[in-house]
Amino acid sequence: MIDNPRSPRVRAVAKLAKREARVETGFFLLEGPQAVAEALAFRPELLVDLFATPTALERYAHIGKKAGESQVEVEFVSEQVLDAMADTVTPQGIIAVCRQFPTSVKDILSGDPELIAILEEVRDPGNAGTIIRAADAAGADAVIFTGRSVDLYNPKLVRATTGSLFHLPVAMGAELESVVEKAKAAGLQVIAADIKGADLLAARKAGALAAPTAWLFGNEARGLSDEHYALADWVITVPIYGNAESMNLATAASVCLYESAFAHRS
Description:
The chain has 266 residues and is α/β, with parallel strands linked by helices. The protein folds into 2 domains: 8-99, CATH 3.30.1330.30; 105-265, SPOUT methyltransferase, trefoil knot domain (Alpha/beta knot), CATH 3.40.1280.10. The chain contains 13 helices and 10 strands. The radius of gyration is 20 Å and the shape is elongated. The model has no long low-confidence stretch (mean pLDDT 94).
């Protein structure tokens, strides 16, 4: 059992909360039983290390069983060590170190996608992670991060995906103009979601949502620039019927992705 929270190995895991360490090592931090279970189920080859307290492994026995089936060794650690490794204030007793696995835009678009999400300068890791989760739930084919969007392997973003990060391809680091050009060449229409756009119901009534679509979502505070509007085939907004001042980006993105999912399946 690892019981020294100041050991070099423990410190190396804890450093993965910082982007510099993730860039240097090519690893990222995965916290919590749900996320670890999804990694073991879908991409066990990515796990470099798997740590758990004895109490947590007893509580989540299915993780120990799946780790054994995947030939991933579980190392026991003390509660103090687990706390030192974790990015969260109240960790759930299970942490893994994983290899990063970004996908290229070329690979995503060569697969004849029907529905993708493009995130342009989305900075909040909770929003970005929730959009990945929503895209997964809606049956989207991929998510693409462009511009200065948040780091895909930010611990808060990874937690917000609750394991969906391992279910669908995600690309990052591309420039928006290039992605839009390639998406259109692959047969996708581009619909930008922004408060300045037309009502979503108009696009629904026009039948526009049934076509293969790349949804474009902009920065939480500024939205999209005029230049980026010009790249889109449609610019729409999710209407607000109550008294809310605005809608959270991840919530609006979920509505948009599901509108396309419903139209594709109707």
